[in-house]
Design goal:
By secondary structure, the chain is α/β, with parallel strands linked by helices. It folds into 2 domains: 143 residues, Rossmann fold (3-Layer(aba) Sandwich); 140 residues, 3-Layer(bba) Sandwich (Glucose Oxidase, domain 1). Helix content is 26%, strand content 23%. It is built from 7 helices and 14 strands. Strands 6-14-13-8-9-10-11-7 form an 8-stranded mixed beta sheet. It has a 6-stranded mixed beta sheet with strand order 2-1-3-4-5-12, with helices on both faces. Helix 6 runs parallel beside helix 7. The mean pLDDT is 97.
């Protein structure tokens, strides 16, 4: 289990996917100063190489350096986009054998969450550095919840008003993240072991027919067969064709998953929606009386 943070600790800041400018990181670094944390920037943090924040090798090197640096107590990702999966082939096989620390990010960072989960190392699906720049009405609250998770180890979310089916108390290790990235992991070493675990999914900007294809694929790969529960985060900016698909994201999920009988909770406040509360991948959760909790201490 990674250790919780203390005031005065150092955190690493890396770009694993799309490029990010110095200007876009100013609010995040100011926030880290408020939290009492020192920021160590990756050597290639502001590189740009076509679609990516530098070459695959250099982005991987920054991540490896941060993971192996004993001064760095947590690693924050600058932003998502696409590119994290391209780093994996450059990671040493024994990289995650030691120095466990919190990784923070979401969206494309799902690939890294899955990689850490495959080594039984918990991580935090939550706001990234860019989110402190591209603010919304919930940004401050999202980061306050992240601060509480990192320093106090507490995650608690009231889900009593969320839409749900087959609802009952449950407990289990949470795994998952962005649905497209989970699908991309099928057949790879990062494919999640969903048996007796709680699966979390969220998605953005997908055509409904494509969303259905992903869900069908995961079902055929038996990722839903033995899960304890399904938690559905934001389904943001979903798209349809001129010829309508005929089902929205919720209906697609229910068509496939409701017959299994496990609890399904919709509208968990995490993902690409305005509310992006932290949720720990690889940590045990408990759901009882409508309250979702995780203890990271």
């Amino acid at each position: 289990m990674p250790k919780l943070l203390n005031r005065g600790d150092c955190i690493g800041l890396v770009a694993t996917a799309k490029p990010v400018s110095k200007e876009e990181l100013v609010p995040f670094k100011a926030l880290m100063q408020e939290w009492g944390l020192a920021v160590i920037e990756g050597t290639h943090l502001h590189d740009s190489y076509h679609h990516f924040a530098g070459t695959d090798e250099n982005r991987a090197k920054d991540f490896i350096d941060m993971w192996q640096n004993p001064k760095v107590k947590a690693i924050f990702c600058a932003r998502g986009g696409y590119g994290s999966i391209r780093m994996l082939k450059h990671f040493p096989k024994n990289l995650f054998k030691s120095n466990p620390k919190w990784l923070v990010g979401y969206s494309d960072i799902t690939t890294l969450h899955l990689a850490l989960s495959s080594h039984n190392i918990p991580s935090l699906h939550g706001p990234m550095a860019l989110n402190a720049f591209a603010t919304n009405t919930q940004t401050s609250h999202n980061f306050k919840r992240l601060e509480k998770a990192l320093f106090q180890g507490e995650i608690s979310v009231d889900l009593s008003k969320c839409d749900s089916v087959n609802i009952k108390p449950f407990q289990g290790k949470v795994i998952g993240g962005n649905l497209s990235l989970i699908a991309a992991s099928v057949g790879t070493p990062e494919q999640p072991n969903t048996k007796n675990n709680v699966l979390f999914i969220e998605e953005i900007d997908e055509y409904l027919y494509h969303f259905d294809r992903i869900m069908q694929t995961l079902d055929r790969a038996q990722l839903f067969k033995s899960i304890t529960a399904l938690i559905v985060g934001g389904m943001s900016k979903m798209k349809d064709n001129e010829v309508k698909f005929g089902r929205d994201a919720k209906e697609i999920i229910l068509d496939i998953c409701k017959p299994y009988g496990f609890p399904i909770i919709f509208n968990f406040p995490a993902g690409h929606a305005t509310k992006n509360f932290p949720i720990s991948m690889g940590s045990i959760c408990t759901f009882e009386n409508g309250i979702f909790t995780q203890n990271l201490g």
